[in-house]
Amino acid sequence: MNRETELENLIKEKLNVSSIDRDATIATYGLDSLDVVEFLLDLEDRYNVAFSAEETKDLKTVGELFDLILNKINNKA
Q: What is the pTM (predicted TM-score) of this model?
């Protein structure tokens, strides 16, 4: 399984859905900012990466969240 598929599955699991709409807002899926922070903290531990508040403060859509996480994981040193 590639990282993109793995990440998509993790997001679907977190959202408790069978498919995701990348253009939908995070709030559409019932997540608030605390939920997002908790999810990112889990991913930091899982992938040994770190997300700054600056990177995450303007996240609005599931696609933005997905892209941020995937880029961070793929570009880790």
A: 0.84
